[in-house]
Amino acid sequence: MQPGAFGPRLVALIALLHGRYRLSDRELVDLVQMVWQLPISVGSVCHLQQVASAALAPAQAEVQAAIAEADHVHVDETSWREGTRRPWLWVAVGTMATLFLIQMGRGKVQLQAILDATFTGRVISDRLAAYHSIPTERRQVCWAHLIRNLRSRVESKGRWQADAADLLALADLVFALWERFREGAIDRATLQAMMQPIQQAMWERMQIVKHDGHYLSSLCSELLRLWDALWTFLEVEGIEPTNNAAERALRPAVLWRKGSYGTQSDGGSRFVERMLTVSATCQQHERPLFPYLIAAITAYWANQPAPKLLPSEGA
């Protein structure tokens, strides 16, 4: 049942302007009073955001279930603020859906809240320890992170600099071949064949450097342990060598955090993650966000099933 004087369109608009376009609560009050001459307070704006959040809870659950069944998922995390607490905002990007979760930590437990024991797909990520719980044959380590690591070691200077420069040059060759493959200039079999001497050269150099006991040694030891996870993109269709999809998905959230300094409560965090989830997933399907918000809020007030967010084929 619809409470008070505000209808689903206004509630959806408040959720949209705050959650998608990042207007502050005070700016929303001024806008509603100026455009519609409606008396509304900051407290009412916050309450209506919680109404929208409750209406989007089924969509959040729908996406979370679909992500857990995806063939492959890009996963990343960034810091968040919730009052005096410092949680992390996680993102998981599938082919057809994107999930955001704000959790207290960035470890194995938080990863399992996104990808539980039933998940059998592949994960594209950075080299955070939380991801070590996933077998290397089901991982793809982000080469963009690796290149940044190598470049920092080249720029830091020291007796490891020449080795770092050589490994960086080999990594650049990996990307050059991948771009040729993406452009259709070579097929997968040719990509694999041309990559073999690069793989061999990297392996041999890392085997030597890992024993040198300098700034680069620990990185090489880590990469050798993750060796299979460096090359999944060569074998599996749809897997990319970078985690750019997750990093792109996090950018609106980072802007939200910088503009609002995070959230003040658990309820605020739930609104953030649900709005980010629904907004990003709608964008993946080129589906207008505002009509979906209206439909979800209307169904919530009518005690009816929430509208489906995903197509039937899943994530």
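The record above closes out task 2.4. Task 2.5 opens with a second protein, given below.
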Amino acid sequence: MSSGVRLSSFPLCPQERQPAVFPCVCRAGSGWTMGGRAQCLDTEVAEPGLGPEPIVLYLATAGGEDELLIERSIHTGMINPGDPWQTILHDGPVARLTYRIRVRCDDNYYGNKCNKLCVPRNDYFGHYRCEHSGAQVCLDGWMGPDCRTAICKQGCNLLHGSCSVPGECKCSYGWQGQFCDECVLYPGCVHGTCNLPWQCNCERNWGGLLCNKDLNYCGRHQPCVNGGTCMNTEPDEYYCACPQGYSGKNCQIAEHACVSNPCANGGTCHEVPTGFECQCPPGWEGLTCAN
């Protein structure tokens, strides 16, 4: 036989032999079925390995110098690894044989030549299983070469979020939120926003480093009374232009409140400590008898 061809022997129990008298006890062996009774006929199989070389089945009498060939069966063709059996029918001049052949790769080897190694794993070096072709199939939640890259939580920002285990979303420094898409404000920022971490962009009518200075104090607080006109001057600062007869920061002091004739429609003005009061004629009412 050609180099590289291996012969394996195992007993063959013909149907004519009665098991009760000459039992052929078979058990699983290394690659082929091995038996235990000398009365069984010896059978040899040439194993060229995977490929187009023929597989030869020899049927001979029990070993020794007087070993005689009974029958020889030659099967040619490719036999791909797999679980299904291939049934071979040999109708020879001496014996009619029916036997089955299948090729199974060693553990963790795949492919038509059993030369593709794939070892399933779920550890630091990879997270995958092996399909029938030997290709790696990532376990749920993993991707990339050797399936070492975790798939982050859906919606996690690709630039500012990351993960070391599936479903996680860990924010980079300066970012926060469920999906790591919210920047962290400058510490102490009051009425401000940010587009990038540590910014404090003031909202409308707010100013200062921390956006805590009111630029519209008049509109927000309306501090001037007694008809005074408010004007914003500096952040958190204002000026009240008081009408004639009033003074004070908020025009709250009445000096000669009735000088400006604030009462309308014939109302009579009376000065009081807080300003003035209008005594309205019949049919009129309100602070200045205007209603």
